[in-house]
Amino acid sequence: MSVLPRIIELARQHPEIAALWLYGSRARGDHHKGSDYDLAVVFTNWEKHPLTRRLRPEELALEWQQECSLPDGRLSVVDLSIAPVPLGWSILSEGRLLLDKWPDRRMRAEQRIYSMWELDYVHPQQGTGNP
């Protein structure tokens, strides 16, 4: 099984994955043989402890990288629920949704990005009293 179908299968089997995206060069189609796999996920639950929340996608990347027999550094995972807004916007606008197990969780994470993008980048001055 090639890498991308294997990743989708791993995400499908993972009980805490709600949605999975591919973004970056592989999603755009301008990748080369050595390009890495840039993935974004939404988890089904919110980790309360900040360090656990931060490390969870990195641990998942290491696990999937090993499962797919990829060299170190060839797979990265971002949690869309905590991703910086510009990165989240890029994932949603240029990425490919590969798996959608929990549409309500996916839509909640997407809405956070869209709302923050609008507040921070489309209408940054609105409501501040500045011209």
- Secondary-structure-derived class: alpha+beta
Percentage beta strand: 15-25%
Task: Give the name of the CATH architecture.
Answer: 2-Layer Sandwich
CA radius of gyration is 16 Å
Low-confidence stretches: none
Query: Whole-Å distance between the termini?
Result: 57 Å
Largest sheet: 4 strands, mixed
What is the CATH topology classification name?
A: Beta Polymerase, domain 2
Number of strands: 4
Q: Estimate the helix proportion, in percent.
A: 40-55%
Mean pLDDT figure: 93
The tally of helices reads 5
Query: How many separate domains?
Result: 1
Strand adjacency order, main sheet: 3-2-1-4
Secondary-structure element order, as H and E? HEHEHEHEH
Q: What shape does the CA trace take?
A: globular
Please give the CATH class: Alpha Beta
Q: CATH homologous superfamily?
A: Beta Polymerase, domain 2
Protein name: DNA polymerase subunit beta
Pfam family, one: Polbeta
